[in-house]
Specification:
This protein is mostly beta strands. It has one domain (about 5-85): Archaeosine Trna-guanine Transglycosylase, Chain: A, domain 4. Helix content is about 0%, strand content about 35%. It has strands at about 5, 15, 25-30, 30-35, 45, 55-60, 60-65, 75, 80-85. The strands form three sheets. A four-stranded antiparallel β-sheet has the order 1-2-5-8, with no helix packed on it. A three-stranded antiparallel β-sheet has the order 6-7-9, with no helix packed on it. A hairpin with a 2-residue loop joins strand 3 (about 25-30) and strand 4 (about 30-35). The chain is globular and about 40 Å long. The mean pLDDT is about 90.
Length: about 100
């Protein structure tokens, strides 16, 4: 069984369907990916390098922009992407 779930061909991140540990290798398509840090279940892993300000694709849709360079195998979350769909914690642009 696969450890990650990639839904759409455009996706540059995948959903982890179990806890991934730093240093382990996971397979997707015909590639192997080295996990850079622990990634919780149902969180995202970068499938390829994503440069600063480039779009992050999940389910074939842009879910955000990279706020720093992201390397293949990195944990992808609010520390390195900014949502393009709005955030409830930034109401009124005061935070």
């Amino acid at each position: 069984m696969n450890s990650i779930l990639k839904i759409h061909e455009k996706d540059n991140v995948a959903t982890c369907i179990r806890l991934l540990r730093a240093g382990e290798s996971v397979s997707f398509d015909t590639k192997n990916l080295s996990v850079k840090e622990d990634i919780p279940i149902y969180h995202k892993i970068a499938l390829c390098d994503i440069p600063l300000h480039d779009p992050v694709y999940k389910y074939g849709q842009i879910i955000g922009l990279a706020t720093k360079d992201i390397q293949a195998g990195d944990y992808v979350h609010i520390h390195n992407i900014e949502s393009t769909r709005g955030r409830g914690d930034k109401k009124g642009g005061t935070q």
